[in-house]
Automatic annotation (TrEMBL):
GO BP terms, alphabetized: rRNA (guanine-N7)-methylation; tRNA methylation
Protein name, entry field: Multifunctional methyltransferase subunit TRM112-like protein
Quaternary structure and interacting proteins, as annotated: Interacts with TRM9.
Pfam families hit by this protein: Trm112p
GO terms for MF: protein heterodimerization activity
Family matches, as CDD domains: Trm112-like
Protein family: Belongs to the TRM112 family.
Length: 112
Protein backbone atom coordinates (compact mmCIF):
# COMPACT_ATOMS: atom_id res chain seq x y z
CA UNK A 1 0.00 0.00 0.00
CA UNK A 2 1.39 3.36 -1.04
CA UNK A 3 1.38 6.30 1.35
CA UNK A 4 -0.83 8.11 -1.16
CA UNK A 5 -3.51 5.50 -0.45
CA UNK A 6 -2.85 5.63 3.30
CA UNK A 7 -3.38 9.39 3.25
CA UNK A 8 -6.90 8.91 1.90
CA UNK A 9 -8.04 6.19 4.34
CA UNK A 10 -9.83 6.50 7.65
CA UNK A 11 -11.47 4.10 10.06
CA UNK A 12 -15.18 3.72 9.40
CA UNK A 13 -15.98 1.61 12.46
CA UNK A 14 -19.46 2.40 13.77
CA UNK A 15 -19.26 5.08 16.46
CA UNK A 16 -15.77 6.32 15.55
CA UNK A 17 -15.74 10.09 15.25
CA UNK A 18 -12.03 10.56 14.52
CA UNK A 19 -10.69 7.72 12.39
CA UNK A 20 -7.91 9.68 10.65
CA UNK A 21 -5.04 9.24 10.27
CA UNK A 22 -4.64 5.53 10.69
CA UNK A 23 -1.38 4.67 12.44
CA UNK A 24 1.00 2.25 10.75
CA UNK A 25 2.49 -0.84 12.34
CA UNK A 26 5.18 -1.70 9.83
CA UNK A 27 6.44 -5.27 9.64
CA UNK A 28 7.85 -4.93 6.14
CA UNK A 29 8.09 -2.00 3.76
CA UNK A 30 9.55 -1.80 0.28
CA UNK A 31 10.48 0.88 -2.19
CA UNK A 32 9.17 0.47 -5.73
CA UNK A 33 10.38 2.84 -8.42
CA UNK A 34 7.66 4.92 -10.07
CA UNK A 35 8.07 7.36 -12.95
CA UNK A 36 8.61 10.92 -11.69
CA UNK A 37 5.74 13.23 -12.70
CA UNK A 38 6.13 16.76 -11.27
CA UNK A 39 2.74 17.93 -12.55
CA UNK A 40 0.93 15.10 -10.74
CA UNK A 41 2.77 15.96 -7.52
CA UNK A 42 1.92 19.65 -7.78
CA UNK A 43 -1.75 18.78 -8.29
CA UNK A 44 -1.81 16.32 -5.37
CA UNK A 45 0.03 18.54 -2.89
CA UNK A 46 -3.05 20.47 -1.72
CA UNK A 47 -5.04 17.23 -1.29
CA UNK A 48 -2.52 15.60 1.06
CA UNK A 49 -2.69 15.81 4.84
CA UNK A 50 0.95 16.76 5.37
CA UNK A 51 1.31 15.67 9.00
CA UNK A 52 -0.22 12.26 8.24
CA UNK A 53 2.18 11.80 5.30
CA UNK A 54 5.24 12.81 7.33
CA UNK A 55 4.29 10.56 10.26
CA UNK A 56 3.61 7.60 7.97
CA UNK A 57 6.86 8.09 6.06
CA UNK A 58 8.83 8.28 9.30
CA UNK A 59 7.21 5.11 10.60
CA UNK A 60 8.60 3.48 7.45
CA UNK A 61 12.08 4.85 8.10
CA UNK A 62 11.98 7.80 5.68
CA UNK A 63 12.75 11.11 7.38
CA UNK A 64 13.53 13.36 4.38
CA UNK A 65 10.29 15.38 4.43
CA UNK A 66 10.10 18.61 6.44
CA UNK A 67 8.03 18.40 9.62
CA UNK A 68 5.94 21.42 8.69
CA UNK A 69 4.05 21.62 5.40
CA UNK A 70 6.14 23.64 2.96
CA UNK A 71 4.64 26.62 1.21
CA UNK A 72 3.67 26.31 -2.42
CA UNK A 73 6.97 27.87 -3.59
CA UNK A 74 8.63 24.53 -2.76
CA UNK A 75 6.65 22.98 -5.62
CA UNK A 76 9.17 24.62 -7.97
CA UNK A 77 12.05 22.72 -6.35
CA UNK A 78 12.94 19.42 -8.04
CA UNK A 79 14.80 18.38 -4.89
CA UNK A 80 11.65 18.77 -2.77
CA UNK A 81 9.40 17.18 -5.40
CA UNK A 82 11.64 14.11 -5.62
CA UNK A 83 11.47 13.61 -1.83
CA UNK A 84 7.69 14.13 -1.89
CA UNK A 85 7.43 11.71 -4.85
CA UNK A 86 9.43 9.03 -3.05
CA UNK A 87 7.34 9.24 0.13
CA UNK A 88 3.98 9.48 -1.59
CA UNK A 89 4.38 6.98 -4.44
CA UNK A 90 7.43 4.77 -3.97
CA UNK A 91 7.21 3.74 -0.30
CA UNK A 92 4.91 0.75 0.15
CA UNK A 93 3.65 -0.91 3.30
CA UNK A 94 4.10 -4.55 2.30
CA UNK A 95 3.08 -6.19 5.57
CA UNK A 96 1.82 -4.84 8.84
CA UNK A 97 -1.35 -3.18 10.03
CA UNK A 98 -3.34 0.02 9.95
CA UNK A 99 -4.50 1.02 13.42
CA UNK A 100 -7.59 3.10 14.21
CA UNK A 101 -6.46 6.12 16.24
CA UNK A 102 -9.62 6.08 18.35
CA UNK A 103 -10.33 2.40 19.03
CA UNK A 104 -6.94 0.78 18.44
CA UNK A 105 -8.55 -1.77 16.12
CA UNK A 106 -6.01 -3.29 13.76
CA UNK A 107 -6.60 -3.78 10.05
CA UNK A 108 -4.02 -6.20 8.61
CA UNK A 109 -2.06 -5.33 5.50
CA UNK A 110 -0.55 -8.22 3.55
CA UNK A 111 1.27 -8.11 0.27
CA UNK A 112 -0.98 -9.12 -2.55
Amino acid sequence: MRLLTHNMLSSNIKGVSNGFPLRLDVENSVSKEVEFNPDFLRNMFSKIDWKALVDAARSMGYAELPEEAPDSSMLDSDEFLKKFHHALLELHLDEGALICPETGRRFPVNKA
